Amino acid sequence: MTLIKKDLLTWIILGIILVFSLFLRVYNLSSVPLGFHIDEASLSYNGYSLLETYKDENNNKLPLYIDMFGDQRPSGYHYLTILPIKFLGLNEFATRLPGALFGSLSVLSIFFLAQVLFKRRLISLISAFLISIAPWSVVLSRASAETIVALFFIITGYTFFIVGFKKKKVVYFFAGAIIATLSFFFYHSPRVFVPLLFISSIFYLYSVWKSFKVNKKAYLILSFILLSLVSFALVFLITGGIGRFTQVNIFKDPHVKLVMEEQIREDGTMKVSVPATRFFHNKLTNYSLSLISNYFEYFSGSFLFIQGGLPVWYKVPSMGLIYLVELPFILLGVFYLLSSKDKYHKLPLIWLILSPITASITVDDIPNIQRAIVMFPMIELIAAYGFVSLKDNLSNNKYKIVIGVFAVLIAFNFLYFLHQYFIQSQIHRNWYRYEGFSEMMSIVKKDYSASDKIVVSKSFGGIYPLVLFYMQYNPDTYQKEGSPKDKPASGFGKFFFVTSACPSVDRDPKVPKVNKIIFIDNGTCPSSNQKHTYVTRKDGAKAFRIVYE
């Protein structure tokens, strides 16, 4: 009876954590984060296009990759937006809802993984709680991040995989492999990380593996082969698989090449022998140093606890990704895990060590939150283990003091995060999230039928997904126009894109001669005598100038 009561209490507490987690992720979801990034608009509009035509914006039928600017993004999240858009409409809330839901479900997945590894309810509940309020999880869950969905499948798949080891049942290996494979359809990084994690775990648990019967060993190997084959096929056999990697891999980084060339020139100036120069300054040495430097960036205190990482539109001002109060418990957790004699207790450390490897071979936006997301759940898990292990090694009175101090500090850290995210972020560098674009487009939309041409400046970046999204532009029409995106001196519908920041002033001769034109200028353009309207951001800066001619 006591066991049943304990189980019931555990489920009640977990349920409360889950509901709280969901509330944190859906509250005011349409408006926070402020603005709507072009990546989100692309996800949403392509989901809308798939709903209406079964094709993406590029006229590809039911694609596995969707190209915006040569990035060839896995299309999993695009498909997840279809149902929300169907029932809620093409809007910010519908776009962000899948991420918010899967971010909340990650609380459950980490609870079960902790339970499988440690068999301690307290560790599992604390892990779930820490993830429910974690800055990295809340921010990414609310920003249509594909990685938050991929993370759920990785944790869940790995949980089944470990259960297979513990129960020695083949069905769990296959279930784990299949579930983890689903992460490949949402983001690129899991295609390297997941096979690496699974094979490392197999080697580490070799003593357990040796006790398996031959047929079970074969099924375990087949599960790993399944993961690897799907990963290989998605990367190398399907068009678009290496699109994003070719853009950001370290071997295409001009900076590394320039440093090496400079070193060779300097050796030449110092009359160093050619063999010596080749020995010290070569691709292997320089790329290795760059990779190692990138790897350790992901364990820096600034990245984890103080400033966070990149891309900049995910940053919360003066806020890290993990609460600073967790640091002592993380260090204690690492110590106690290393001291533990249970082999399964070391797995979070193996996971953590492997986590930044995939991110380290890229050069764009380092350290990158999205590419390193797999490391954060393990840090929370380790902190929870450190907290409970401290309890086991302290007297009751001392532990009550620790709990009291921790409760006060975590409450302050959490409230500070809420203030920085829900209030400060509204005006802090909000141009990175295209704040003001929705207001500008609502004005344009009202005047669309009365105008002959709308000339849009490309100085704002690759904004065509936002135009498609806010206009709710007919996907079939867009595809028949040849999916023109925003190439200079071209466009779709009445929209015409030009490179000038101030097209109403710096007239492009390629703009068609028509009667009624609307110009979308940068808000900082010089004053004009023409009829115009300004759109300002919450920080008071002028974001856009709409000029009527």
Query: Percentage of helical residues?
Result: 55-70%
Strand tally is 7
The residue-averaged pLDDT reads: 88
The largest sheet, given as strand count, sense and whether it forms a barrel, is: 5 strands, mixed
Low-confidence stretches: none
Computed Rg: 26 Å
Form type = globular
Strand content: 5-15%
- Assembly state: single chain
Kindly report the spatial arrangement of strands forming the biggest sheet: 4-3-5-7-6
Protein structure class: mainly alpha
Question: What does this molecule look like?
Answer:
The chain is mainly alpha-helical and 549 residues long. The chain has helices at 2-26, 38-53, 76-80, 82-88, 92-118, 121-133, 135-141, 146-167, 170-181, 190-204, 206-209, 214-237, 243-248, 254-269, 274-280, 283-297, 301-306, 327-339, 347-354, 356-360, 375-392, 396-422, 437-447, 464-471, 475-480, and strands spanning 65-66, 73-74, 453-457, 495-498, 517-522, 531-536, 542-548. It has a five-stranded mixed sheet, with helices on one face. Strands 1-2 form a two-stranded antiparallel sheet. It is globular.
